[in-house]
Amino acid sequence: MVTDEVVPENGRSVVGLELTPALMPGESLLVGDSVSIVATAGQQGDPGAVGDGLVFDAEVVGVIPAAELGTSVISVDVPADEAAEVARWAASGRVALVLESREG
Q1: Residue 49 above 80 pLDDT?
Q2: 50-80: b (≥16 Cβ within 10 Å) or e
Q3: Of 40, 48, 83, 86, which has the fewest beta carbons less than 10 angstroms from its beta carbon?
Q4: What is the pLDDT of residues 72-95, one digit of tens each?
Q5: Which of 56, 94, 93 lies closest to 78, judged by CA?
């Protein structure tokens, strides 16, 4: 697909999330989908350690299935001032992805 739109635009950043199927919707993600990135306690973590409602709004800009690894790399567009924190949570394996409504 060819477009004149620059991604990420000024004030935005793209962060890659490597996720297992258990940490994202069973519905196939599409470029342009609105998603919420939810901070989690990790596989054996304490849910109370996350605090209440650590959620980042994002838009899917790329999806690369890595079937041989059992994961997918989802590229998401987030506000630049949240990118480092999203990347830290993602690098520690402590995020899940929620697909928001595709209506409207």
Answers
A1: no
A2: beeeeebebbbbeeeeeeeeebbebbbbbee
A3: 48
A4: 999 999 999 999 999 999 998 889
A5: 56
